[in-house]
Amino acid sequence: MRSFARSVFPRKRHSAALSSDPSGFVIVTHPFHPLNGQRLEVLCVKRRGAAAVFVCAGGFSGQMTLPQAWTDRGEPPGTGRLSAEGLAALGAATRVLQGR
Question: Running DSSP on this structure, what letter comes out for residue 64?
């Protein structure tokens, strides 16, 4: 029987971290997040696809991950209002999808 030796080069985990040093604090701005309005310490910043996420101190396990868009560092949300014409078009599309 042959024994195969393991590679002499240990595998390294690839991290998607943008920064290993704390980046200060963020304020949770997502309107439905239970910590809305609270200031959290940033432990590190990582990439998830094209967006950044913050790993913050807090939460049930001691750390939580927040998308940048849910913090004061994200893009400000749009107005979210629809015109009367937009609401009518949305109602018509809903009726078509429901088969009425």
Answer: E
Residue showing tokens 């949770």: 28
Q: In whole angstroms, what is the distance from residue 26 CA to residue 33 CA?
A: 14
The token pair that represents 44 in the structure block: 């590190």
CA atoms within 13 A on the CB side of 59: 14
With CA atoms as reference, report the closest residue to 65 among 73, 56, 74. Answer: 56
pLDDT in tens, 44-86: 999 988 889 999 998 777 899 999 999 999 887 666 777 888 8
Predicted TM-score (pTM) of this structure: 0.55
Containing 53, the helix (H) or strand (E) segment is strand 51-57
* Structure letter (DSSP) for residue 35: T
* Coil, helix or strand at residue 20: coil
